[in-house]
Design a protein that fits this description.
Strand order of the largest sheet: 5-2-11-9
Strand content: over 45%
Number of domains: 2
Largest sheet: 4 strands, mixed
Distance between the termini: 83 Å
Order of helices and strands: HEEEEEEEEEEEEEEEEEEEEE
Structural class: mainly beta
Number of helices: 1
Shape: rod-shaped
Helix content: under 10%
Length: about 200
């Protein structure tokens, strides 16, 4: 037998031997976590909730499952400023020798942008120096956004003029701040005619 088929067979043999003795095999639910930087994550399955502290990389649910119990681990509450995904979170206890669930967390990201006034010629290029990306609004544009370059929570963004348009001089207000949980729409680009 290969190792792949040997483990489930051994788990089944163990469960059957315990059942013959009047006992039932139990299986702890082990959770491996990557990237959890903030508090607030609560996982749930089979009527059990598990609060996970920031920085935790491995933890187990408080109670084990009995052989044959169906489980589906999910995030009941996300952590602050992050989104977490659960993989290998559902199965039947005893199908494998151990229950290992994997949770991966990443910082939330949001877009930055704002309004433009007075842009009468092409050539304007705006850049987010700390987060990357360049946008080139056309003459007459009234808004802009770094749609392809969202900024992660807690990262400083800095929007500046990279290139001036042909017939205008443009300046940026509210261009620098630390990214929060929501999209930024209050950056203001004001353009005036070149002297």
């Amino acid at each position: 037998m290969t190792k792949r088929t040997l483990r489930p067979a051994l788990a089944l043999a163990l469960a059957l031997s315990l059942a013959a003795c009047g006992g039932k095999a139990s299986f702890p639910i082990n959770v491996n976590i990557a990237g959890l930087a903030y508090s607030g994550l609560v996982l749930t399955t089979n009527g059990m909730d598990l609060t996970v502290a920031a920085g935790t990389t491995s933890i187990a649910f408080p109670n084990s499952l009995s052989y044959g119990d169906v489980y589906a681990v999910s995030a009941k509450s996300p952590p602050l400023h992050q989104t977490c995904s659960v993989s290998a979170g559902g199965d039947t206890a005893g199908r494998l020798a151990a229950i290992n669930v994997y949770v991966t967390c990443a910082l939330n990201q949001a877009q930055i942008g704002g309004t433009i006034s007075g842009l009468t010629s092409d050539g304007l290029q705006l850049t987010n120096g700390s987060g990357g990306g360049v946008v080139a609004p056309a003459a007459g544009a009234v808004d802009f956004g770094f749609l392809s370059n969202p900024v992660p929570y807690g990262v400083t963004y800095g929007v500046t003029v990279l290139a001036q348009p042909a017939n205008n001089v443009c300046s940026v207000a509210n261009g620098t701040a630390v990214m929060g949980d929501a999209a930024v729409t209050n950056i203001v680009v004001t353009c005036v005619p070149k002297p």
